[in-house]
Amino acid sequence: IVSAACLAHDLGNPPFGHSGEKAIGTYFSEGKGRTLQAYLSAKEWDDFTHFEGNANAFRLLTHQFQGRRPGGFVLTYATLAAIVKYPFSSQLAGSKQKFGFFTSEEEAFQKIAHELGLKKISKEGEPLKYCRHPLVYLVEAADDICYQMMDIEDAHKLKILTTQETQDLLLAYFPDERKAHILDTLKIVSDTNEQIAYLRSSVIGLLIGECTRAFLDNEVQILEGEFEGSLIKHITERPAAAYQHCAEVSFKKIYRSRDVLDIELAGFRIISTLLELMIDAVRSPEKAYSQLLINRVSGQYNMKATALYERIQAVLDYISGMTDVFALDLYRKINGNSLPAV
Hints:
The protein is mainly α. The protein is built from 16 helices and no strands.
């Protein structure tokens, strides 16, 4: 279940990752999408202004797209529940922009929560909120471990971090005796990328052990729905300090590097432009240009739905399903900067 959930949990992420999520949300809250608020309910508006990849993954896996079978991917309830890191509605997203399901999938999540016996926190009449499924903590831990370690290894390959910096960051997880053994092992190969890969896998192994222990130590609270925070916040002192230092270095040197920021800037423009054109098209489908755009979209997306909320969702389904390269290619073609080979 955890393996399947780990593979599935990022399926709903739009092009350009977290910056893509932000680009979609701010198109509605700050951009030209603000004019749509008057035509949507408060809950529907929150879905769009707080657009979230996790909620979109749950939609992608459970929604019946045009011409497809009911139940979406028809995964087990346990697998679906294990990807919902934030089991509450968009009305409770707050400043962190995190929530677990759109208004359109509320009923589906309620059914899953009831069948699995997830504890409901919200009272009658309040926005929906549940305790997490216990396996969410393991999926979250796998995500926390992997993105942190892989980003540092990638930063080394891209020469954002030096070999010495990277080695120091990863060796800090270990006590002196284990560190000496690792340094001896590094001498077996001269390839620096291979050395960093070995260090990275060693740290991942250590963190898996730490998070496993944290899960077992807190199993009763987790099952009762009373556990606070993530497993990575409950690891022992040395690896916790090393992980925190890695997070600080990543934020300062990797996520705020010029190349990353340039991609985010481009991503904002690409996603905003595609959203503007596609939403205009589904709002005014009788226009000739709208027909050209709509005809380019796969028939599985219900661009002709009766409700505006559903038509906008169809646009978001289409755009969020793109890769970075596909989104860039479509943006160039729409702007007339690229044409298919004749």
